[in-house]
Amino acid sequence: xxxxxxxxxxxxxxxxxxxxxMLLSRAFEERLAILYRQGKVLGGIFSGIGQEATAVGxxxxxxxxxxxxxxxxxxxxxxxxxxAPKALMAQILGKSDGLSGGKVDYLHSGDPALGVYGSTxxxxxxxxxxxxxxxxxxxxxxxxxAVAYIGEGGTSTGDFHEALNFAGVHRLPLIxxxxxxxxxxxxxxxxxxAVENAAERAAGYGMPGHTCSGNDLLSVRHLACxxxxxxRDWLGPTLIECKTYRWHGHSEHDDASYRESEEFLEWKSRDxxxxxxxxxxEREVLTDEIAERHRADATREVDEAVAFxxxxxxxxxxxxxxxxxxxxxx
Amino acid sequence: MTEPARPxxxxxxxxxxxxxxxxxxxxxxxxxxDQSAQGTARDETPPNAEAAAKPEAVTYLEAIRQALQxxxxxxxxxxxxxxxxxxxGGAFGVTHGLFEEFGEQRVIDTPIAESLIVGAATGAASxxxxxxxEMQFADxxxxxxxxxxxxxxxxxxxxxxxxxxxxxxxxPSGGNVHGSMFHSQxxxxxxxxxxxxxxxxxxxxxxxKGLLKAAIRDDDPVLxxxxxxxxxxxxxxxxxxxxxxxxxxxxxxxxxxxxxxxAYGVGSYYALQAAETLVKEGIDAEVVDLRSLVPLDxxxxxxxxxxxxxxxxVHEDWRRGGIGxxxxxxxxxxxxxYLDAPILRVAGRDIPVPFSPPLEQFALPTPExxxxxxxxxxx
Lengths: 330, 379
Fold this sequence. Notes:
The complex is a heterodimer.
Chain A: H1 12-37, H2 52-59, E1 67-69, H3 75-80, H4 85-92, H5 126-140, E2 146-151, H6 158-169, E3 174-180, E4 183-184, E5 187-188, E6 209-213, H7 217-232, E7 238-243, H8 261-268, H9 272-282, H10 288-311
Parallel strand pairs in A: 1-2, 2-3, 3-7, 6-7
Antiparallel strand pairs in A: 4-5
Helix pairs in contact in A: 1-2, 1-9, 1-10, 2-7, 4-10, 5-6
Chain B: H1 14-29, H2 49-53, E1 57-59, H3 60-74, E2 78-82, H4 98-102, E3 107-109, H5 114-126, E4 130-134, H6 145-158, E5 168-173, H7 188-192, E6 198-200, H8 205-217, E7 222-227, E8 235-237, E9 251-254, E10 259-263, H9 266-280, E11 285-289, E12 292-294, H10 298-308, E13 311-318, H11 323-334, E14 344-348, H12 357-363, H13 367-376
Parallel strand pairs in B: 2-3, 2-4, 4-5, 5-7, 6-7, 10-11, 10-13, 13-14
Antiparallel strand pairs in B: 1-8, 6-12, 9-11
Helix pairs in contact in B: 3-8, 5-6, 9-13
């Protein structure tokens, strides 16, 4: 059985790549919020701002052939897996150059060539599909892994239970990332589960469950790499709970008045990006100049994405009929 | 459109069969799927070896099993997933012997988790495999409803054609087996309504085998409704050669001049019985067996009704909002001028399928109810 690298790559270039992935995700989503307020986004925006370390840290070290099933708040996962900001922005604006050619909004589409698969809005229902991808890897013996993303809210669904139970029984190469941001829309975690940590649920499925600070990129990445290696070595699935916080409401229309402002400010002070910058500076990988350049690059890439998406035409009406079936309409 | 000509069954010796199997085993070793985890105690004599040596009529159930076995031998990407489908061989024995031949990697027992079964099939299919998933009873499909209509049916569309979902979901359907309301349902209409799915419902062993093979080879998700009532009731000699029944082609099961009875699945079986009664009473009914609901063979329906000028639609599924309503609308839109009588439907009454035999008989269509409706069309 081929073993994967035990420890994550911590070369300066890689550490800066991780940094850039977080910056790009942040810049992209900050721009989305602005576009939303300008009335340029027709659908909803489900901000993952504040959760970048979880998204990037769990997806960065995956390989070609692996499959990710990001949730609606996982722009960072899509970008880290190589979805072009231009295509993603066009997708969100409903344009013909978007991932789905305008057929669906937001992250409900993906790019199979990059191993990125869209979710539906039925929270939890992507986990059985991700388990099916992991099953395919097992049957094909391809040594790839599938990563399913779910909020702590989604751990209450039947699909979560059915999929994790099956993955445990069949020791599937599946990683379940629980992004615990303490709210399912407006419902606080105390009204969602009677255990303190979502990771405790893993015991019922015979798989390890770990809890980490989802705002600490290094902790997240460390656990993710361990879980991925375990899966590649056919040792079975792992649940990783990343405790994090969404800064915005469930969607941009939601002012999140249901949460205490002290709590929000406390979490905002734990912003994953400055936290990682501190580490990079301690490692002497990051200087003011490098930070500035990376931020400028991210901003420029987002500028270009917006310009591209705004120029991209809307699809022709008849394109609504395309691609439902493999060979046209039955 | 008429049923395709059936090739004559070729006589094959057990020795030929055995030789073929050796070659097949060799091929299997070259396949993408790892075979190492297969059952070690393989039965060296395939269960149908004797039948192949001396062609025998096979049941509807056996025809389904043959299709599964042959497709799994042909394509290493085909695998089975469902409840009790493994060593036990399925609640009805449909998958009997497949676990022994293909092993636990390709005949996968799941926990009681219908949503997982369909979701996992969707994931595996999206990654290039061809799962044949099973609902132990079609009734249980409601537990997987979201996975079918929101995940599987939209998967290809949402990804703008960059992937497809080539799964088959086998659903043992229908009443008259003393199953009561949770083991007797015909849930096809829920899915007929949903864009992105294909639906077939065979009425004969020949079609069961040919449609299942076509469904497995099809690149879109196909719901395969099979009928418990027909499992062991129908027997037919099948061609030894590989064949498929293409999706979207209806069959004229019985030609007739006076009336078109349009049916599918077990409804076609009842319709044929009714037609035999009717011909003795002076009504020559044509029976159109749809075989496939999506795609629907509109041409064969319209052609038949334009010839006979009368349309009676039969299905065991509930009447309200059923397939019959859609076919009646089709005829209203495209054959109205040809009709000499109102379009009638004989379908399951709009009540849960009740348990006690007199109640169940009352609820479900019977050949008598079909014949009675046909007579009304000539008054």
